[in-house]
Amino acid sequence: MAAGLLSEATAQGIDAWHLASGTLPTASQPWYEVASTIATLVAAIGAIGAIIVGIFTIRQRADADARSQWWSRVQWAVDLSFDEERSRRTVGFEALALLARSSLARAGDLEFLRGLTLEPLAVVSGRGDGPFTLDDAPAPTDRVSSLSHRVQVGRDEVAAAQLRAATDAAQGLPTPPWILELAGTRAA
Question: Measuring CA to CA, how many Å separate 80 from each of 22, 90, 94, 128?
């Protein structure tokens, strides 16, 4: 029965697509109206594509700007971490530890920041591997106490250990226990 309807419709000039869609072709619609409709559809698709490309471009530009600002802060903090004055070095290492925790820090950046801690931590390791006390803590008296057997460290060295712990954590690397102990050193 369906085959009979299809052959009858074909005989009348109606193809299967028009029959399935429920529309009838109109002989009165000129070709330029059809072309105009198609051109409008193509233009709309092109505009949607341009909007999508624009959104991705803006997002990429924002990410690049954020990364550039992050790197400027890293450069500032690195300069401080090499300063002669201990308090300025402390600020530099503390700032670097915060920057290492940022989502903008990439694996290579974390390796670079981790490398900045090698020299200060080697100096501390040469003096001993703990327990630690800040060198601005009160000096021990003449009698033997738990403070008299502690390794004296500066706040800058503690901040370097905190940076090392932050970079190791961000990279999923184990931090040596003595560095974690140093990173947790507080004033007595």
Answer: 76, 8, 10, 26
State pLDDT tens for residues 60-84: 998 999 999 999 999 999 999 999 9
The identity of residue 182, as a single letter, is: L
Contacts of residue 36, defined as CB under 8 A and 6 or more positions apart, other chains included, come to: none
Low-confidence ranges of the chain (pLDDT < 50): 5-6, 9, 19, 138, 141-145
pLDDT computed for residue 145 by the predictor: 47
Side chain identity at residue 24, one-letter code = L
- Which of 99, 81, 98 shows the shortest CA–CA distance to 90? 81
Q: What is the 3-state secondary structure (H, E, C) of the chain?
A: CHHHHHHHHHHCCCCHHHHHHCCCCCCCCCHHHHHHHHHHHHHHHHHHHHHHHHHHHHHHHHHHHHHHHHHHHHHHHHHHHCCCCHHHHHHHHHHHHHHHCCCCCCHHHHHHHHHCCHHHHHHHHHHCCCCEEECCCCCCCCCCCHHHHCEEECHHHHHHHHHHHHHHHHHCCCCCHHHHHHHCCCCC
Which tokens in the block code for residue 52?
A: 């999508």
Q: How far is CA 11 from CA 5, 8, 14, 17, 27, in A?
A: 10, 5, 7, 14, 16
